[in-house]
Amino acid sequence: MPWKRPLSGLYFSGWSVSRFEVMSGSVEMEVQSDDSPMPAAPKSWMRNAMERSGPFCLPDFDHRPGALHSVLGQIQVQFLFRRNDIGRSKAEVAANFINNRIPGVNVTPHFCKIQDKDEDFYRQFHVVVCGLDSVPARRWMNGMLHSLIEYDDDNTPITGTNIPLVDGGTEGLKGNARVILTGTSACIECTLGLYPPQVTYPLCTIANTPRLPEHCIEYVKIIQWPKENPYQCEIDGDDPAHLCWIHEKSVERASHFGITGVDYKLVQGVVKNIIPAVASTNASIAAVCANEVFKLATGVCKPLNDYVVLNQSDGVYTFAFANEKREDCLVCGRKANILNIKEDAKLEELISKLCQDDGARMKNPGLTTNVNGKQMTLYIATVPSIERQTRPNLKKTLTELGLVNGAEIVVADETSPMSMTFKLNFI
Ligand SMILES: [Zn+2]
Question: Where's the E2 binding domain (predicted)?
Fold first, then answer.
């Protein structure tokens, strides 16, 4: 006979879940006994995630009403908003909506950048769910969670320090979700190749041989606007007058080249770099993420291993696969980061190596080192006064800067919350 028991963080060995429901004031799960084979025993990380007490963000997680509390990114926002919410913080509106809609649930909004919170903030949580809108933000969160892991003498993550990360993302009719058991499975940085570089159009195509409506809009945005400067200011993608001007000029240019398909919505999309959000894709991916959190929090079955894709652009297609963890990963690899570079290379070449697609894919790295026991700033672009002072170093060779084979360079970049150390290996 089925009966109800409160949702517990313990592993339900030998029980199958027939129904999970959120009831007024409490989260309860209906379970029933059956003769199906016992699920495999959870690994230590799983037990750790499951048996920690307190809500997802508090040490005394006791699964009582209101216990569900986790970091919500931007997973599925448009269902939660109404017209009179315009102008209010998305996080606050979404939290209010959910709190009012589902009694017993307590979502705490934080209206700030993810980078504004420190290690102590993230350390409180038992699971982190990301629905972020950019790759750098994902890399940052991935770096943050990995920086919290403590390892024992055998290089095994110490249970209690590894927080699982569930990540979801959509792009139009396509989406993906993944579960990262930090320190154990492949991390975001291991699989950077999954994220294609942002679509950009070569300037020569835009200027001379446009073939797509996007080429015509890009031309007006990049070349015609600065030349004619109709409003004596930079383009504001939220200003209808600016968009109308760009639309009009783009249509003119498109008709000149016999191209059709330039409309206001496309202009808005190209100018603001918008990828249309499709509610069904977002809902499916949000559901996968929620399902994975449920599995992690209860241990009813194994979590996704470790990546699932959804493609609805031509029929419906889905596929799951496991990513491979890279031993030389800059974030989760436990090896020293070796940077192979020519002895006579200039500092600017070293920096471009750090930014390359097949390298660390950094954005704007700042570099410091230690020469003869003295701290030395090699180059930092983000602080104008230091940038001016260190700019001449870019043209110097590594040896001219006093760097020797095996020297360590500390690199800070916006893609990671922690700085990384690279050991130079002259080739
Ligand atoms: Zn990794």
Answer: 339-427
> Are the C-beta atoms of residues 111 and 148 closer than 8 Å to each other?
no
Q: Give CATH superfamily name and number for 337-426.
A: Ubiquitin-like 2 activating enzyme e1b. Chain:  B, domain 3 (3.10.290.20)
Question: Catalytic residue at 204?
Answer: yes
Question: How many whole angstroms from 332 Cα to the centroid of ligand 1?
Answer: 4
The residue to which tokens 């939220």 are assigned: 238
Out of 204, 301, 332, 355, the active site residue is: 204
CATH architecture label of 1-197+277-326? 3-Layer(aba) Sandwich (3.40)
- Cα(56) to ligand 1 centroid in Å equals 24
Domain parsing of the chain, residue ranges:
1-197+277-326, 203-272, 337-426
What token pair was written down for 44? 């230590």
- pLDDT (tens digit, 0 to 9) for every residue of the chain, 427 residues total? 333 333 322 222 222 222 233 322 233 333 333 334 434 444 555 555 555 544 555 555 443 333 333 333 334 446 777 778 778 888 888 889 888 988 888 888 888 888 999 999 998 888 999 988 788 889 999 999 998 998 888 778 888 888 999 999 998 899 999 999 998 899 999 998 887 766 677 788 888 889 999 999 999 998 899 999 898 888 888 888 999 999 999 999 999 999 999 999 889 888 887 777 788 898 999 999 999 998 888 888 899 999 999 999 888 999 999 999 988 888 888 676 888 889 899 999 999 888 886 778 888 899 988 887 788 899 988 888 889 999 999 999 999 998 988 888 888 888 888 788 888 888 8
What is the 421 CA–ligand 1 centroid distance (Å)? 15
Cα atoms found within 13 Å of the Cα of residue 412, Cβ hemisphere only: 12
Residue for token pair 């007024």? 24
